[in-house]
Amino acid sequence: MEAVLTHLRGAIERGEYAIGDKLPSEAELCRQLEVSRPVLREALRALQVMGLTQSRTGKGTFVIANAVEDPTFGDYAASDLLEVRRHVEIPVAGYAAVRRTPENLDHLAHLLDRMERETDTTAWVAMDTLFHLAVAEAAQNPVFRRVIEEIRDALARQSAFLNELGGRREQSNREHRAIVEALIDGSEHDAVEAMSHHLDRVETTLTDIVRSPRTTSSTEGGPEA
Fold first, then answer.
1. Distance between CA 157 and CA 103 in Å, rounded?
2. Backbone phi and psi for residue 119, each to the nearest 5 degrees, phi listed first
3. What angle do CA 37, 55, 124 make, to 5 degrees?
4. Between the CA of residue 142 and those of 54, 112, 124, 148, 209, what are the distances in Å?
């Protein structure tokens, strides 16, 4: 999928598909790139998240921009989502460190163990959002959980995007482990630092994906299947 995405993104950024142009049909792109339809559809979804294309029901996929600026996850732009996460999840981690119950810690430890064993990206992404909800619950303020619930779909979409294109899963597991260890220790400072580091790495990976055109791998024969 990443090879297909790189190829199509490069073609758009080089102007081979101009703003307003319709991309070839899925069947045609599958033939050109020699990939399966599920792989192609993943790449097309990623192009939409990046803000390069728009799918119009019954009409096809159209180019709406020639450069990636601010990906959108569900109803929210990545920059807006990250800004809110910094203002909410960092202090929430601090509150959770001093307010968590034994039940909260057991739940988080169980989730973390499952995430570290999970190999399926879709299942891992689902648990990723549950992890952040569990940290909010440990802060013992229902408003915090409600905020995370509101952005839950966007968090899942962002998590899937970063894992598909940024290989974030193992690194994220380590960052989650540091957060849980800080909560176990009851250290507000360490919990705040661990969550800050986690969100820093999310931002860095997202920025790398957005800023790196990675068009040099496009070849005359297209990407390998």
1. 28
2. -110, -15
3. 60
4. 37, 22, 25, 10, 34
36-45, 94-103, 174-183: which has the minimum mean pLDDT?
Answer: 36-45
pLDDT in tens, 152-168: 999 998 998 888 777 88
Which region holds residue 214: left if phi is over 0, alpha if psi is between -120 and 50, else beta? left
Look-up of token digits 């790189």: 6
In terms of Cβ atoms closer than 10 Å to its own Cβ (0-12, 13-18, 19+), residue 122 is exposed
Distance from C-alpha of 73 to C-alpha of 151, rounded to nearest angstrom: 10
The residue among 21, 9, 41, 66 whose CA lies nearest residue 216 is 9
